[in-house]
Structure formats: structure tokens, C-alpha cells
Amino acid sequence: MAHEGGCFCGAVRFTITAEPQGARFCWCRDCQRIASGMATVNVLFDEDAVTYSGAMTTITRVAESGNTVERGFCKVCGSQMYSRTTQGPKLPMRVRAGTLDDPEICPPTMIIWGKSAPSWAPFPPGMPVLEAGPGSAPLAGSEG
After folding, report:
1. CA dist., res. 11 & res. 75, Å (int)
2. Starting from the edge strand earliest in sequence, which strands make up the sheet with 80-87, in order?
3. Cβ atoms of residues 41 and 98 within 8 Å
4. Do 127 and 114 form a contact (C-beta atoms < 8 A)?
5. pLDDT tens digits for 77-120?
6. N or C: which terminal CB in the chain sees fewer CB atoms within 10 Å?
7. 83 sits in which H/E element
8. pLDDT band at 25 (very low <50, low <70, confident <90, very high)
């Protein structure tokens, strides 16, 4: 089953021809900055299954993890569309849940980079919280 989505203004659209591999909240400082102070909510897909159309721009930075990460944005409205690791371990593409036409397809099941979240961050009760990226230790004092 194909999944579709797009940006706020409609200039960018995408189709995904695979099922999600999972979803998570990310509280790294880069995500907080592009999400205006909150976590990003990311649905994970095989990069080869995601096709975008429309004018996008990208920014590439070395993340706190040490990986080089590319983030794609609509050139017209600035909606953040995805992030993907370009140097580092092969990781799934992170499609922003809010850009999916049906954001219900895969609810988040974990929080990553919990150590970077502000004290007021709303962590869903009982959801696992990791200190840093996937595979890192659970955040001390967190539920899960």
C-alpha cells in the first residue's frame, strides 16, 4: 500500500511504497530548533521507497551523534519534510509525521535524545526514553 503526503502549501508531494519501520520522537537540539522548540516526530522508511516531487532545498550538518544528516525543506513554505543520514551508519529515512496525509499510520513508540529535552518536555507516560540515539542507554529517571 502506498502512503502519500506533502508540505503545508502543497508545492512538495511524496509517495512511499513501503510500510513504516517504526516511529519516534527526537529531542536532539537540531530537531528542537527546526521544530520551534518541540521534538520532531519521525516515521521511519527505507529511503529507496520514498519519492518526492516539487521544489525542495536541503541543509546538511554534522549531528551530535557524529553522523552527517541532510534535512529537506519545501522551498516555498519551509515545511520540514525529512532527514536522512548521508555519512555514518545506514539508517532509515525519517519522514516528518505531520507531512503524511495519514499521520496515524505509525504512532511513535520511543523517545530519542531525551537528555537534550528541556525539563518541561511532554514525554508520554510509559514510553521508553533513551539518553541519545537508537541503541543508547535509557535516560536515568525516565519511565519505560
Report:
1. 8
2. 56-62, 68-74, 80-87, 93-96, 40-45, 22-26, 111-112
3. yes
4. no
5. 999 999 999 987 788 999 999 999 999 999 999 999 999 999 99
6. N
7. strand 80-87
8. very high
Question: Could you give the strand order of the β-sheet that contains 50-53, starting from the edge strand earlier in sequence?
Answer: 3-6, 13-16, 50-53
CB 22 within 8 A of CB 94: no
Taking residues 124-144, what's their average pLDDT? 88
Residue in 104, 101, 116 with CA at minimum distance from that of residue 26:
116
pLDDT at 140: 86
Between CA 24 and CA 123 the distance in angstroms is: 11
List the grid coordinates of 141. 529517571
Cell numbers standing for residue 19: 510500510
Q: Which pLDDT belongs to residue 143?
A: 57
- Please choose, from the candidates 20, 4, 32, 18, the residue with its C-alpha nearest in 3D space to the C-alpha of residue 111: 32
